[in-house]
Design brief:
- It comes from Molossus molossus.
- It holds the Pfam family LRR_6.
- Keywords: Repeat.
- This is Leucine rich repeat containing 34.
- The chain is α/β, with parallel strands linked by helices.
- The chain has a single domain, classed as Leucine-rich repeat, LRR (right-handed beta-alpha superhelix) (Alpha-Beta Horseshoe), CATH 3.80.10.10.
- It is 37% helix and 12% strand.
- 53% of the residues are buried.
């Protein structure tokens, strides 16, 4: 049975209802069809309703014009957290949001993932964030980039050298390669505010882990790193494990889901947890498990070193052999969707946001 979705005209009625309501401070209309028509009414609502601090407009068929209207409305509002995920505002709309951040002094978290941002707008965000002291978390996932020079990553790396307020940066599907990761790591020697770095779904290999492992020896700020869906292999995992074993005592969560790591690398990471008392969350599903891997993580869970809620695997025994099954835990399992049962903000499924609670939905 098809589900009837909220349209732009429907949103007009909703906005009029909310316009003078002093008790509602959050609005979630994700996965509807409000389009640019609804974006116009959302912009009007933002200009009149000063109690709203959270709006989720993700995947609502909003285009560049709608993005422009909302960005201009944010010049003077009380909004703290905006999700525009999946609305194709493109480079033009992204430029208006970047310009808005030069003026806005209340917005703490902005999600522009999957919005088809272009190189120009990503660079504009990097430039603006060297001065903006309010934004604590920003998502720039899956921009539309051309070229092989990691240009956007170079600019974001420069931003991290200058910005001492940003706590959360998401650069998933950003075409980051080892050279780009080096620029980010060089910046992290100087940055003392970033707590959550997401570089999942990129083109990073084990060579890039040399740079990350080196900076983690001295960086005491990073608490969550998402490296999922990069080709780290055993060499990359071992580089990380050596640093986590002997040097780093600040990282709390590491995700290496589907990183082409085999038994040797996975066991090395498990060994680092035995000597590192701070690393509490590790996610390894999608790699190649051998019996030694299964035994190692089963042992960590059984001895209480690794809590079942803090990993995405669960041991089970068949015919005297230990295996690992997948569990629906992770750093951001509910980024695109929330379950129809249970707690939608479950800590075990959204550990990244629980460990670094920047601009949580209120």
């Amino acid at each position: 049975m098809p589900v009837e979705r909220v349209t732009g005209d429907d949103f007009f009625i909703l906005s009029k209802t909310l316009e003078k309501n002093p008790y509602i401070n959050g609005l979630d209309v994700r996965y509807n069809l409000i389009s640019d028509v609804g974006a116009y009414h959302a912009a009007k609502l933002l200009q009149k309703q000063y109690n709203l601090i959270y709006i989720n407009l993700m995947f609502n068929d909003i285009g560049p014009k709608g993005g422009e209207l909302i960005a201009k409305a944010l010049h003077d509002t009380t909004l703290k957290y905006l999700r525009m995920t999946g609305n194709k505002i493109e480079n033009k709309g992204g430029m208006f949001f970047a310009a808005m951040l030069q003026i806005n002094s209340t917005l703490e978290k902005l999600d522009l993932g999957d919005c088809d941002l272009g190189m120009q707008s990503v660079i504009a965000f990097a430039t603006v964030l060297t001065q903006n002291q309010t934004i604590k978390g920003i998502t720039l996932n899956r921009p539309i980039l051309y070229g092989e020079q990691d240009e956007s990553t170079v600019h974001l790396g420069h931003m991290l050298k200058e910005n001492h307020w940003l706590a959360e940066l998401h650069m998933s599907k950003h075409d980051v390669k080892n050279c780009g990761l080096k620029h980010l790591c060089d910046a992290l020697y100087l940055n003392r505010s970033l707590r959550y770095l997401d570089v999942s779904c990129n083109k990073i290999t084990h060579d890039g882990m040399v740079f990350l492992a080196a900076v983690l020896k001295s960086n005491t700020t990073l608490e969550v790193i998402d490296l999922s869906f990069n080709r780290l292999e055993n060499a990359g995992a071992k580089n990380l494990s050596e640093t986590l074993t002997s040097h780093n005592r600040s990282l709390k969560a590491l995700s290496v889901v589907s990183c082409s790591i085999e038994g040797e690398g996975l066991v090395a990471l498990s060994q680092s947890m035995k000597t590192n008392p701070i690393l509490s969350n590790i996610y390894i599903w999608g790699n190649k498990f051998d019996e030694a891997t299964c035994m190692a993580y089963a042992g960590l869970i059984q001895m209480g070193r690794l809590k079942p809620d803090n990993t995405d695997v669960e041991p089970f025994v068949v015919d005297g052999h230990v295996y690992l099954a997948e569990v629906s835990n992770g750093l951001k399992k509910h980024y695109y969707w929330t379950p129809t049962y249970g707690n939608a903000l479950c800590h075990s499924s959204n550990a990244g946001f629980s460990l670094v609670p920047v601009g949580q939905q209120l």
